[in-house]
């Protein structure tokens, strides 16, 4: 049975300090309408700018250490370390919520997602009269970063499950495994309480980078992986602004802090992964296998999954039944493109990454009307029509979930570097690959190549504009 979307019944707030910025902050969760999604709002800024919790807005640059948390930016507005908040929302299956912040980072509280979970449960959860949307993994999806030793696999299944392994090559921690098989039954008790952690040797370096300004020994599990003398401990306390006593202890955890689970670090890494994959903007049906994940790799994998979701969403919009190996059949193409006989020159779209890449095919038959006059004794497809066929594939490439195609037209503004390499004749199948080069809101530049039996027959760069019909 299809589940309904969910929001909360009333506003709730929580206060604390951001772990990296050290800013005092108040987070307020508010109900939102169906299909609103999860959206951060900076109420401390003029006009209260919004940042949707989507992977398109994730910051990835040298100035932000994305290995220590996930940050979002829209325009000049930023929100840092959002993963615990998003994990709490996913864990409670809350689809639509306004997340107000009066600073640029949510409070860290105890370093887990549990304080957010408790507040959201206090607010109450309400079903909405709209079905949830899902990303359904239909065939294995693989991602690997050999340099970091990271590997992800998404496998088909009818639920959201995660199996995870960490291995820091550090004798103080070693390898750990964990797995979540039911959000409803396991998230609150088994994963939401798992706290963030770091190694003792990392703390000074993090402080030197201007991070963990709001951290203290109660907001993280610190794993002791090297001895410190009294002078070093005092220096560290001074750098972190800690007044309480600090001892290395004998348990392997700073101050002998008790772990909430024997594999709490692995469980927290799974919690982070849930929060980062929330940035796909959709509920996931898949078994996720993750080896040595971190925020950077989580986000890279989330981008892959979001692109698959965008493709599925467009396919469902224009095609009632998905055919194996085909994204859009001719009936779907006729819903997207305004062209009709004798000028519709695409038979199917077989690959699509919205706004990135599209591959279409055109089966060239002897019955094409242009063969009657274009060399009747030796029929050859006019080069201008090959370019037109590529342009039509390019028109589909411009699709995204926001474009109302029924009310839009694609006009081509110019072509560069057009080259015809071989003739195209009856019986050939044109395979046309279009790649986005530049995307500037309403104007675009694409590179197109057409092949027959793997041989390049035509290539061109095209500029286009999307206009109202």
From TrEMBL:
Annotated GO biological process: fatty acid biosynthetic process; lipid A biosynthetic process
Top-level taxon in the UniProt lineage: Bacteria
Gene Ontology MF term list: (3R)-hydroxyacyl-[acyl-carrier-protein] dehydratase activity; metal ion binding; UDP-3-O-acyl-N-acetylglucosamine deacetylase activity
**PANTHER family linked to this entry:** UDP-3-O-ACYL-N-ACETYLGLUCOSAMINE DEACETYLASE 1, MITOCHONDRIAL-RELATED (PTHR33694)
Q: Which residues does Zn(2+) bind?
A: 84, 268, 272
The pathway to which it is assigned is:
Glycolipid biosynthesis; lipid IV(A) biosynthesis; lipid IV(A) from (3R)-3-hydroxytetradecanoyl-[acyl-carrier-protein] and UDP-N-acetyl-alpha-D-glucosamine: step 2/6
**Which keywords accompany this UniProt record?**
Cytoplasm, Hydrolase, Lipid A biosynthesis, Lipid biosynthesis, Lipid metabolism, Lyase, Metal-binding, Zinc
Report the protein name in the record. Answer: Multifunctional fusion protein
The cross-references to Pfam families, in alphabetical order and at most eight, read: FabA, LpxC
Active-site annotation: 295 (proton donor), 374
The EC number(s) this enzyme carries: 4.2.1.59, 3.5.1.108
NCBIfam families documented for this protein: fabZ, lpxC, PRK00006.1, PRK13188.1
What organism is this sequence from? Answer: Caldithrix abyssi DSM 13497
The task this protein performs is described as: Catalyzes the hydrolysis of UDP-3-O-myristoyl-N-acetylglucosamine to form UDP-3-O-myristoylglucosamine and acetate, the committed step in lipid A biosynthesis.
This enzyme catalyses: a (3R)-hydroxyacyl-[ACP] = a (2E)-enoyl-[ACP] + H2O; a UDP-3-O-[(3R)-3-hydroxyacyl]-N-acetyl-alpha-D-glucosamine + H2O = a UDP-3-O-[(3R)-3-hydroxyacyl]-alpha-D-glucosamine + acetate
Cellular localization per UniProt: Cytoplasm
Q: Which family does it belong to?
A: Belongs to the thioester dehydratase family. FabZ subfamily.
Name the cofactor(s) required for activity, per the record. Answer: Zn(2+)
Lineage of this protein's species? Bacteria, Pseudomonadati, Calditrichota, Calditrichia, Calditrichales
InterPro entries this protein is in? FabA_FabZ (IPR013114), FabZ (IPR010084), HotDog_dom_sf (IPR029069), Ribosomal_Su5_D2-typ_SF (IPR020568), UDP-acyl_GlcNac_deAcase (IPR004463), UDP-acyl_GlcNac_deAcase_C (IPR011334), UDP-acyl_N-AcGlcN_deAcase_N (IPR015870)
Which GO CC terms are listed, alphabetically?
cytoplasm; membrane
């Amino acid at each position: 049975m299809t589940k309904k979307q969910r929001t909360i019944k009333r506003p709730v707030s929580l206060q604390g300090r951001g772990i990296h910025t050290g800013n005092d902050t108040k987070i307020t969760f508010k109900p939102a309408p169906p299909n609103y999604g999860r959206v951060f709002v900076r109420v401390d800024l003029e006009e209260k700018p919004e940042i949707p919790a989507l992977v398109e807005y994730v910051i990835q640059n040298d100035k932000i250490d994305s290995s220590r948390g996930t940050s979002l930016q829209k325009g000049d507005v930023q929100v840092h370390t959002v993963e615990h908040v998003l994990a709490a929302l996913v864990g409670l299956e809350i689809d639509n919520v306004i997340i107000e912040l009066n600073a640029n980072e949510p409070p860290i509280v105890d370093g887990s997602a549990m304080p957010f979970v408790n507040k959201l449960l206090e607010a109450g959860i309400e079903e909405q009269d709209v079905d949830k949307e899902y990303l359904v993994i239909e065939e294995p999806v693989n991602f690997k970063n050999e340099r970091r030793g990271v590997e992800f696999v998404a496998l088909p299944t009818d639920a959201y499950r995660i199996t995870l392994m960490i291995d820091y090559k550090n004798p103080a921690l070693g390898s750990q495994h964990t797995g979540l098989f039911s959000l409803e039954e396991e998230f609150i008790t088994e994963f939401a309480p798992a706290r963030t952690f770091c190694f003792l040797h990392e703390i000074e370096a993090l402080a030197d980078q201007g991070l963990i300004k709001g951290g203290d020994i109660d907001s993280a599990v610190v794993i002791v992986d090297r001895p410190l003398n009294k002078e070093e401990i005092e220096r560290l306390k001074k750098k972190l602004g800690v007044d309480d006593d600090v001892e290395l202890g004998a348990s392997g955890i700073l101050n002998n802090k008790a772990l909430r689970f024997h594999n709490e670090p692995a469980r927290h890494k799974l919690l982070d992964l849930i929060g980062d994959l929330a940035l796909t903007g959709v509920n996931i049906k898949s078994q996720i296998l993750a080896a040595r994940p971190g925020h950077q790799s989580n986000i890279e994998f989330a981008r892959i999954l979001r692109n698959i979701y965008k493709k599925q969403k467009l396919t469902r919009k224009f095609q009632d039944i998905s055919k194996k190996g085909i994204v859009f059949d001719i009936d779907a193409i006729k819903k997207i493109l305004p062209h009709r006989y004798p000028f519709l020159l695409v038979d199917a779209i077989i690959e699509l990454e919205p706004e990135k890449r599209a591959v279409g095919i055109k089966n060239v038959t002897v019955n094409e009307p242009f063969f009657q006059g274009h060399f009747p004794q030796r029929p050859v497809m006019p080069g201008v029509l090959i370019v037109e066929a590529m342009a039509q594939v390019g028109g589909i490439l411009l699709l995204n979930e926001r474009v109302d195609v029924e009310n839009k037209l694609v006009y081509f503004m110019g072509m560069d570097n057009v080259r015809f390499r071989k003739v195209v004749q009856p019986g050939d199948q044109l395979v046309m690959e279009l790649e986005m080069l530049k995307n500037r809101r309403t104007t675009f530049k694409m590179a197109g190549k057409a092949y027959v039996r793997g041989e390049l027959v035509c290539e061109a760069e095209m500029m286009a504009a999307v206009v109202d019909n």
